[in-house]
Write a structure and sequence with these properties.
CATH class: Alpha Beta
Oligomer: single chain
Structural class: alpha+beta
CATH superfamily: START domain
Distance between the termini: 37 Å
Strand content: 35-45%
Radius of gyration: 15 Å
Largest sheet: 7 strands, antiparallel
Order of helices and strands: EHHEEEEEEHH
Shape: globular
Number of helices: 4
Helix content: 25-40%
Length: 147
């Protein structure tokens, strides 16, 4: 079994703005992680940190196609993630996040799929609210205890 986790959302913002939200940690920290060691650049490895959870993820950027796709390897276990950007109109973008190449089986795989699906859904929800309304809801921070 080789599952592909996919979440998606229509974002009412131009494709360049949605794309840059993932490239530029000054924006990404408003809806996803707390800090980053740098911008996403092809071939570069950065660290993303979530202060509340005392968690860090190493993120290796495999490829970037401007306003089209960002492909990374990240996490533990190490998996592939594609951020795919599709322009619907000048002011709307369809975002898909795909997580795959998951080296787990059985119950561990099921738990990973559930956690990843919920996590990336929260990310796209938080992104939508931030980019469309300028509100940082702290959804990632509020997702798990302790409060």
């Amino acid at each position: 079994m080789n599952p592909v986790i996919e979440v998606q959302m229509l974002i009412r913002q131009p494709i360049s703005k949605v794309f840059q939200a993932f490239i530029d940690p000054e924006v990404t920290t408003k809806f996803w992680f707390s800090t980053s060691t740098g911008r996403l650049e092809q071939g570069k490895t950065v660290q993303w940190h979530w202060h509340k959870y005392q968690a860090t993820a190493e993120v290796k950027v495999l490829s970037i196609v401007e306003n089209r796709q960002i492909q990374i390897l990240w996490g533990e276990p190490r998996t592939a993630v594609d951020f795919i950007f599709e322009q619907i109109s000048e002011s709307t973008t369809y975002l898909k996040i795909r997580n795959y190449d998951i080296p787990l089986q059985g119950g561990e795989l099921i738990a990973f799929v559930m956690d990843s699906t919920g996590g990336f859904t929260t990310v796209v929800d938080a992104l939508k609210v931030y980019l469309e309304h300028g509100i940082s809801l702290a959804l990632i921070e509020d997702k798990f205890p302790p409060f």
